[in-house]
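Fold this complex.
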Amino acid sequence: MPRSQSNRLSINGERMWATLHDLAKIGGTEKGGVRRLALSALDREGRQRFIDWCRELGCEIEVDGIGNVFAVLRGEDPSLPSVMVGSHLDTQPTGGKYDGAYGVMCALEIARGIRDRGDVPLRTLEIVAWANEEGARFSPPMMGSSVFVGNLKLEDVLAFKDVDGVSIGSELSNDALVARAKGRGPRGIAAYFEAHIEQGPVLEIEDKPIGIVTGAQAQRWYDVSIVGTEAHAGPTPMDHRKDALMGAAELALAVEAVARRQSPDGRATVGTLTIGHPSRNVIPGAVTLTVDLRHPNDDVLGDMDASFRKAAREIAVARGLRIDVGDFWRKPHVPFSEPLMKSLEAIAGDRGFATRRITSGAGHDAVNLAASGVPTCMVFVPTKDGLSHNELESIKQDDAVTGCDVLNAAVLDALNARR
Amino acid sequence: MPRSQSNRLSINGERMWATLHDLAKIGGTEKGGVRRLALSALDREGRQRFIDWCRELGCEIEVDGIGNVFAVLRGEDPSLPSVMVGSHLDTQPTGGKYDGAYGVMCALEIARGIRDRGDVPLRTLEIVAWANEEGARFSPPMMGSSVFVGNLKLEDVLAFKDVDGVSIGSELSNDALVARAKGRGPRGIAAYFEAHIEQGPVLEIEDKPIGIVTGAQAQRWYDVSIVGTEAHAGPTPMDHRKDALMGAAELALAVEAVARRQSPDGRATVGTLTIGHPSRNVIPGAVTLTVDLRHPNDDVLGDMDASFRKAAREIAVARGLRIDVGDFWRKPHVPFSEPLMKSLEAIAGDRGFATRRITSGAGHDAVNLAASGVPTCMVFVPTKDGLSHNELESIKQDDAVTGCDVLNAAVLDALNARR
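Structure:
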């Protein structure tokens, strides 16, 4: 189907929005959020609702050993690689209605539109609901897609435990869907699309309804230990202190400055900071803290890393502290597909929607797909105040429909592309 | 007895040092520290050992309702106000051998010297062991002396509870000594002396064996709450953050600078700092921290308070944060007796010991006595590396003997002073 046709095949925005809010009732909280922790009964209920909706359309349901669900709408030529569209249905402990669910419901709406029109696209459409994207109870996040692309081995993951010592394997043995799982069929993937809320403030501030995601930021995470000398707050003059907290404060601000020098793409966060034996009238002798550095460009992130380590050394010398910077985790930049980005930009442009290229700050299942070699792109929609992982997470209906509409056109193009 | 005589009446340093280390065996820890928490069985054992030693000298033992112990060595004229000398016997949970115990053992050695010589000084000597100076399990610290001078009412204190809900009253009901307590006899106090380890590094750094304590620093303690916006560390650009931790870091350094501008006497400590929902990849939305400001001069401390609050306001505006500075507690400067300071300085000078006037950074029972109007002074001895409230707390035998010797001469002068 040529582009000129797909442009007229718009989605049913009211239906998509209503279905999204029907889903949000499962695990819905008093404050308007959602709690559907991965591997919980509510997560299973949400996934079952999604499966029921897909079966109504005639989709075949395939489930793999970690619990990823693929709802398959067969195309005219099932031998061709399929087009995969989706996101995740699990939430943070006090999560919102849109993180993840929005992308899956967009994919469902695309399939419903195809069925409404009685179309049979050239390629097979797969709607995917990735398992345990949030990683809130069982780490790491993006677990389902990591197992899918082979970054994690299923047998290893099944042995992972939560803080109470319960393993993923034992939790999954209670999951009838996974117990009966026969895995996903042997299909290639021509393209992967994911719509998601931005989870940041940029689109809202710039009044752009559509973010075309260029890929994932490179990230480096660190564990920092600062050791000084614990001492009594009263008798110890300022010049004779080796105050680990003051060193930590200086390091936090140095880290912030490192990211500010790489504005607007650099990011630096000190998310945890713990004093060894905190007491109101004791000079802290030991502090641990974490640092999270991000930038879309691997080389720039390398420079940020060097600046951060230099600051740590200088502060240690100036304050007589011992500062150890430990590498906790790192991830290179993952670029998304330039042709898919251009296609989405053209579609949005035709419809008169302003777009902005944006690097994803958060991790997404799409990053696993892209890193594994699947042509991948994401569409972001504005998030009120950039607020996410929060019961107050909110998006505008108009923006949600716009995002779904643009995604729909791109997916239909891909479904009907000969190659 | 004129000064010229008292100078020749030196103490038995070996005996004092040995007795101090005998006492340290009660509650002694593997690492060389002491654990005699107030109101514990070990605390009672330590106090009983002290009482036994005092009874061997013929002291009468008086105990009051909070457990302060007064060992009374009657003078030639019991109608004259007495001279009180002492400190405390309880320790921190992982305390050292010298904090408190040194002062009580100095007082015991002074009494032993009087008995050795068969002297009967003009005035009555009271050796005091104050109850619960540390306040480790039951707050506040300096409880025994606070009840003694009337800052706390006994009936109120008996209802105070530890974190497990056990009251002081119920613990004291198990204490045979307190159960039989008839209180201290109706004597005035001519002077109060206390020897103590410095618990800071100043005397060691300046190589001065004797610190003549000028009084207690004025103190202001604060609870600070900083509220920004919790957000995802990846998608949120640096310019759109309201990072409570970065605000806290800036405030901590501002507070440090406030004290440095009042060098060497100003002190500022951020002893606790807690992030609301700490997570490696979440920008902190809420931080609480405590601030402890000290200076010997009330007016200067008032200026420091104003500078601190101004910094908090400026940081709040610059970073779009809400910063609330709450008053937790405050205490004015308490001066010790200038005549007693001069007397101690003259005695030390006669013996060729270098002295230094020093304001006490830590709280001491002596401060309660001074604030209640009793002419009071303290002698500090150097503490290795300024380390205290620590099992590794250490002092040199020579310094301990020097301190006791100077204190002895001053106490004998006071005991024989007609007025």
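Chain B touches chain A through 66 residues (CB under 8 Å).
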